[in-house]
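ok posting inputs for the guanosine-5'-monophosphate job
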Amino acid sequence: MYRSMETSELLKDIKEILIPEEQLQARVRELGEAISRDYRGLNPILVSVLKGAVYFIADLTRAISIPITLDFMAISSYSGGGTASSGVVRLLKDLDEQITERHVLLVEDIIDTGLTASYLLRLLRARNPESLRICTLLDKTSRRIVEDLPIVYRGFEIPDVFVVGYGLDYRQLYRNLPFIGILREEILEGGGVV
Ligand code: 5GP
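and the output
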C-alpha cells in the first residue's frame, strides 16, 4: 500500500476496500499474460478510454509481452456528475491511429449497463477493424441492459455498488487510490466533496 498523505486523507471517505491492491495487480498480470498468448503475431491496438481506464491500461500494457500499439479516446458519459448512467455519450477525443483491418482490443475500467461500451463498439466497428473485443477490469453484470458485448477479458465481477479508486472517480476525486473501494453513503448522498 502506498502511504502518501493524499492517499491516507482519502481513506476516511472509503467504507470498505472491495479489491485490495495486491489482488488487483495479480489479476491484471493474469489478463496481460492471456492477451499476450491470444494476440501473438497480431500486433493488436489497445484502445483505452480516458480518464477512468488510465491506471488499468498502464499496468495491463506492462504485463503484456508482445508488440502492441496504444491509443486513447476520451468521452463524457455522465451529465451533472451523478452516479447513474445517462446513456448519453459525448466523444471528446478521437483515436490518433487508423484501426481498419487491425485487431482492436477496447480496454475499459468498468462496464455497468453496457450503454457506453455499446456506443464505443458501434463507433469502432464502423471503421472495419479485423477484430474487436473488450477487456474490462470490472463488470457489474447484474446491471447489464445491453446484451452480447464481446467481453473476452474480465478482471472482476462486482456487485451493484458505486466504486472508486484505481482510476475510477466520484466527481473527479479518488482516482489515485491504489485499490478499488466503496464510498461511504453520506459522501454520495450528500452531493459529494467538491
Ligand atoms: P455504463 O454505460 O456501462 O452504464 O457505464 C459505464 C461508465 O459508468 C463507466 O465507464 C464509468 O465511467 C461509470 N461507472 C459505472 N459504474 C461506476 C462505479 O461504480 N464507479 C464509478 N466511479 N464509475 C462508474
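notes: The mean pLDDT is 91. The chain has one domain: 21-161.
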